[in-house]
Amino acid sequence: MNEINRFKTLQAYQPQAARILQSGFINNRLSHAFIFEGPKGTHKLATAYLFAQRLLCTNVGKDDEPCGNCSNCVRISHGTHPNVFLVKADSEQIKKEQIKNLIIEFARLSVENGPRIYIVDEAERMNQDASNTLLKQMEEPSADIYAVLLTTNSNALLKTIVSRAQLIHFKPIARALIRENLLKEDVSELAARVIPEYTNNIEEAVKIARSKDLMAILDLVVDLYRIAGKKNQSMILRFKETSDRVMVNVATMDFFLTLMILFQKDLLYTLLQHHDQIVFTPEKALLEKLSKTTLQSTIQEMLEKMLALKSRLRYNLNYALAFDLIIAQLERGMQHGT
Ligand SMILES: [Zn+2]
Predict the structure, then answer these.
(1) What's the CA-to-centroid distance between 62 and ligand 1, angstroms?
(2) Which of 167, 104, 181 is nearest to 136 (CA)?
(3) Measured in angstroms, how far is the CA atom of residue 184 from the centroid of ligand 1?
(4) CA 50 to ligand 1 centroid distance, Å
(5) Is the separation of the CB atoms in 132 and 160 below 8 Å?
(6) How far is the CA of 117 from the centre of ligand 1 (A)?
(7) Average pLDDT over the chain, rounded to whole?
(8) According to CATH, what is the number of the domain 211-337?
(9) Which positions of the chain have pLDDT values less than 70?
(10) Where are the chain's structural domains?
(11) pLDDT score of 296
(12) Pairing between strand 116-120 and 84-87?
């Protein structure tokens, strides 16, 4: 389950977290409580398991990495080691009972030797009672117990909890890294350029690349611009062909609009010669052609309309009409330009 099984790998994704944790081990000055704060998809949980492996590994290498093969390492990566306890919300909230169970578990003599680690995933979901109970546990530190709280927002945690832990920020994964990962998955060059603009979550990026429907939307966007300005073809008809089939919810519509906005921005960047900002680089020839035949004011006006529609997407009830309208406007705008 753990795609990050070495600090060296973590270094590529979260250099700061890797540095802080590793130096804690090397200098033997490890904090007993950590808060990993960062957006979803930044490998907080994977890092917590790596941390546990490094603590419990019976065969730590000269490079200070957990071996990944000893019984402890293997059981941690399978989530079956009795010394590693994961608490996560089983409903909207993490309730007091869940934290109590954790404390009862840790009050028992451990079945196995070595440090024990508890991880609270989405710690911001702890309700007041749960937070207070956890705080009590943290106030009585024990040499062999480590806490790792994962959260998207440390401001949502009790200040007294935060003050007892070392806060480590997890940053959104760099686009280049997501792109690299996608290319390894045999994703097209275009998709590998575009998807990291939509999400900074590697797992989500791979999921998008594997979705036939979402990739059909990417094809649709490029096709629409290919058709733009051609008198014998209809953008509306091409749009309906795909949209009727795959644009079935707000998420898919949002994906479509985001790609349209990216392409529209690319048109502007092409026109302004900001080549390094272009996302649809494999479609450079098309961008060049359209930027020569469309007025800058039209490109900007359409871009504004798309952005406005995107911000209203969640509240707009008549999606079909809104999309038809914007495609029709785009079709007209592109023809005026020719
Ligand atoms: Zn090991």
Answers:
(1) 12
(2) 104
(3) 28
(4) 10
(5) no
(6) 16
(7) 91
(8) 1.20.272
(9) 1-2, 316, 336-338
(10) 7-169, 211-337
(11) 92
(12) parallel
